Amino acid sequence: MNAITANELISGAVVYLYETGEFGVDLQKAKLFGADEQDVRDASLEKTLKNPRLVSVEAIAVEVSETGTVWANRLREQIRANGPTVGGFARQTLEGADHVSL
Amino acid sequence: MYRYDEFDAAFVRQRTEQFSHQVQRRLSGELTEEQFRPLRLMNGLYLQLHAYMLRVAVPYGTLNSTQMRKLAHIARTYDRGYGHFTTRQNIQYNWPKLKDVPAILEELASVEMHAIQTSGNCIRNVTTDQFAGAAGDEIIDPRPVAEIIRQWSSLHPEFSYLPRKFKIAITGAPQDRAAVKFHDIGLMAATNDAGDVGWRVFVGGGLGRTPMVAKEISDYVPHEYLLPYLEAILRVYNMYGRRDNKYKARIKILVHETGIETIREQVEAEFAEIKEGVLKLPQGELTRITEYFAEPAFEPQTDTKIDIAQFEATDSAYARFLKHNLHPHAKEGYTSVTISLKPIGGVPGDATDSQMEAVADLAEQYSFDELRVSHEQNLVLPHVAIKDVRTVYDALVANKLQEGNAGLISDIIACPGLDYCALANARSIPIAQAISEKFADREEEFGELKLKISGCINACGHHHVGHIGILGVEKKGTELYQITVGGDATEHATVGSILGRGVTAEEVPGALEKLLDRYMAERQSADETFIQAYRRLGDAPFKEALYG
């Protein structure tokens, strides 16, 4: 499966495309694209690339556990989703909102 | 230290205003990211995994207390209360917000600092020996020439779009503490037959995916001709350096593919054209710049030595500090104090805002208001009177900066790795933490040992030149770590050799233990360091220890 991720322009925070069409910081709320939805995914990706408040847009591989938890396949994306594994620092938050509207 | 003149001040102010406007245009949507990206990079602003990262230049690693307090203020006000000192003697902030960056740059400009040319295909911050102007073995203080190079290279119109980034390091001492042979250009003070001091020039060194030791291109260039000589090298590089392949664009590849003899001929031809031109340095200008770096007002000292042995039984931590963190000073009764940013289990190179302020206070009170950042990611108080060392140490203890481990295995260079860096393949910091914790009780017995860790082949953690180097790679979704031995960043410049297949993160401390146990078993005496033993023994015993 895929999710669409980016960094928000002002804060640089990691965000994901939600089912609602908004972008927010919670991977668990990410819209997931199955293997048979590549056209939809690519259309969403294309639309996201045009959003001036989003940078470094890409589709990432994710999986869903039996309990429904979404997790990124690559360690890089796990770290982006959860923050640094050292130093006890929380992830970057969005500037003045909990989501970025499309 | 150097103080901005009107030109410098106007130059930095104009650049800050210009970038502020560029940020506003980006936020308003007038500039696309494609248009904005090169502009932000020219001002040291990267986008990393979690946030923006701002890299601030510390020219040749020299700071005063006012500047350090400003760095602390920025960490507290605009970031998360800490900064990360880097192998290029700079400081990086990991969490700034784009809208705040213009204000940060204004704050920096108010103390004569900036982030210009800390990224991009231009001439980067000139680095030097952290003990410059203080070291007992120094032939000449390299900082005036480093400053002249800074002025020459800042926004040089011809060299703003080089084939690739370009790094210059300079040392005034025969013992190379600035890794000059692993820079695009390395300068080492030299004396000619007449007894005049000038510069040996090395070209084509570097780390990254193709590590190379620089080759000597000139055995002596006088001060007055140094800028035209550097300009000639840059012109040859700008003309012939490869722009078709990013991975072959550094000058080291040009030197390797063309041959040092041909490069020398090309440089000499260019040099002959320009050597008597505007870049020829008048003695008056060198004298003017040198005056900024005048020796502090040292006073005669009665305390000229510290008997370390007297503390070994009663205060072993202080004895360790004295043994490892003091460096011989040119002036009797003084010493240079290394402030380790490598607490056991800590993040190499990180300092909190309060620690930065404490260090600024110490510099002001005990080191003639001077501070240095070392390429080994530590701080230095260059001029401390021997009689003040205990007071300085006690203040460091109060601020958790007292680790007496300079030059030992826990004094690790590590890049930010996959915890922060968008280019990394594997984490570096947790590996450094695990190693320093594992060997905290044994590092004294291992003696001098340079351990360097990179989270990808770009080698920001200098793993190629670690006595033991560790390179993180990703293989089928797993972090693996390749171990190299025998690297050396000093005047004996050597690229380490890979011992064999990579090991997992969990296996790294155990793998190092095998190497170190073998070293302990094989060394001829307690005085034979790891690198000396390696040079005598070669790879074989270490390969066998690791892989059987």
Structure description:
The complex is a heterodimer of chains A (102) and B (548). Chain A is an alpha+beta fold. Chain A has helices spanning 38-49, 75-82, and strands at residues 2-8, 14-17, 23-24, 54-64, 70-72, 99-100. Chain A has one domain. Chain A has a six-stranded antiparallel β-sheet, with helices on both faces. Chain B is of the alpha+beta class and 548 residues long. Chain B has helices spanning 6-27, 33-42, 65-78, 101-109, 143-153, 223-240, 251-258, 260-274, 283-292, 309-312, 316-325, 353-366, 389-398, 429-438, 443-446, 508-522, 530-537, 540-547, and strands at residues 45-47, 52-56, 62-63, 82-85, 91-93, 127-128, 168-171, 185-191, 197-203, 215-221, 326-328, 334-339, 350-352, 371-373, 379-385, 413-414, 451-454, 468-475, 478-485, 497-498, 503-504. Chain B is globular and about 60 Å long. The chains are: A alpha+beta (102), B alpha+beta (548). The A-B interface holds A 7, 9-14, 52, 55-56, 73-76, 79-80, 83-87, 89, 91-92, 95 and B 26-27, 29, 32-33, 47-52, 80, 95, 97-99, 347, 350, 418-420, 422, 424, 426-427, 429-430, 433, 474, 477, 479.
In a nutshell, what does this entry contain?
The complex is a heterodimer of chains A (102) and B (548). Chain A has helices at 38-49, 75-82; strands spanning 2-8, 14-17, 23-24, 54-64, 70-72, 99-100. By secondary structure, chain A is an alpha+beta fold.
